[in-house]
Write a structure and sequence with these properties.
This protein has 389 residues and is mostly beta strands. Helices cover 1% and strands 39% of the residues. The protein has one helix and 26 strands. Strand 22 and strand 23 form a beta hairpin. It is elongated and about 70 Å long. The N terminus is likely disordered.
Length: 389
């Protein structure tokens, strides 16, 4: 049995959502059906290739419960990787979610909401055999999908991956030793632990070399490879493209793998990493995140797939507090900030109105308590015009 314990992020999430906010990808809203009146379950899934998140609402239609356990069976090959507002365990296709100390009591008519994230490969049908404390769930209501937040339509990716003329255009083929050299230098910006960085000749996206970072957990365990190029004149929109590969799914705790020192924050960084299993931006000066770390906000981001090269692109506006993020050709709706605050996405981010002014690029690993990972970076580019994958 593999136990996946719910972890509290640094900002508490509300236990009950006021709306199920989903991206425009596959959407399933599944009320339990039948004549039984023990409980009702609304299962809303947001899925993409190889992964999904699910928001689950269980309503108790029977006697009051001091503690609840919701069980179901996945008939596909779904595997739960993380959860929030419940403790979730999975054995084979059988899944059990148990209430926490703050949402474990369910009065008659009361409801609890929780979420989970997982993977799938060949099939991911929604479950239909929910039971609450052993009693089959029923009810004949239907929960209609709510309107997703307004986000700009995806933009057409740049037609060319050519980065000739960019301030940084590196495939690391000019690296001659195992230690980063030339236009790249190892650095531990705040403090150094056991994390390491090296030039790898065994794994590469193109050519025969890449940068490898073995990141280690710990508040004082930073390992980055920094470009020597000065980015202070790149703009007015700074475009960043990189290919990244990693081995361990983004954890529930906060981690960073891209750091951009920012003069608008007195040298503190704009940071790209993950929290609650999905990609996020973080601002070092005030700890703001994009998206907001609510279940709805995280569902509008994406995990960073493991075991394969992924094209990650950013566009950072240096004249306004705005940015965009693409994973492959998809613009990620939860990692978009513009001048209009959007609930669960960029309200917190836009509380700061000073435009960012990144001056450098660091690639590596920084955790804030937990989380090891091994990452590779290749075909990195930074310039004033869009750079495709």
């Amino acid at each position: 049995m593999r136990a996946l314990l719910a972890r509290l992020p640094r900002r508490p999430w509300t236990a009950v959502l006021t709306a199920a906010v989903l991206s425009a990808s596959a959407l399933t809203v599944l009320p339990a059906s039948g004549a039984e009146t023990g409980c009702r379950v609304d299962y809303t899934v947001n899925k993409w290739a190889d992964g999904y998140t699910a928001q689950i609402k269980v309503t108790n239609l029977g006697p009051a419960l001091d503690g609840w356990r919701l069980s179901w069976t996945y008939t596909g090959d779904q595997q739960v990787t993380s959860a929030w507002n419940a403790t979730v365990t999975q054995t084979g296709g059988s899944v059990v979610a148990a209430g926490t100390s703050w949402n474990g009591a369910l009065p008659t008519g009361g409801a609890a909401e929780f979420g989970l994230q997982g993977t799938w490969r060949s099939a991911d049908p929604a479950p239909s055999d929910f039971t609450l404390n052993g009693v089959p769930c029923g009810g004949d209501g239907t929960t209609p999908p709510t309107t997703p937040p307004t986000t700009p339509p995806p933009t057409t990716p740049p037609p060319s991956a050519d980065c000739a003329g960019a301030v940084i255009c590196s495939d690391f083929e000019d690296q001659t030793g195992s230690a980063p050299s030339g236009d790249w230098r190892f650095t531990a910006p705040d403090c150094q632990g056991t994390g390491t960085a090296a030039v790898d000749t065994a794994v590469a996206h193109s050519g025969s070399r890449s940068l490898r970072v073995d990141g280690r957990a710990g508040y004082c365990n930073h390992a980055f490879v920094a470009a020597t190029a000065d980015l202070s004149s790149v703009g007015p929109v700074m475009h960043v493209r990189m290919w990244v590969r990693h081995t361990t799914a983004l954890p529930s705790a906060h981690v960073t793998f891209v750091s951009l020192p920012d003069t608008s924050q007195s040298g503190r960084s704009l940071r790209v990493g993950g929290q609650n299993g999905a990609l996020q931006w973080n601002r070092e000066s005030d700890d703001a995140t994009l998206p907001a770390q609510s279940p709805a906000g995280v569902a509008l981001s994406r995990p960073l797939p493991t075991g394969s090269w992924q094209c990650l692109r950013f566009a950072v506006d240096t004249t306004a507090p705005g940015l965009d993020t693409w994973l492959g050709d998809e613009r990620i709706p939860g990692l978009h900030a513009d001048g209009v605050p959007t609930q669960d996405i960029d309200r917190q981010w836009l509380a700061r109105t000073t435009p960012p002014r990144p001056t450098a690029l660091r690639l590596g690993w920084e955790s804030y308590g937990t989380g090891d990972d091994t990452l590779w970076f290749d075909d990195v580019a930074v310039g004033s015009t869009p750079i495709g994958c």
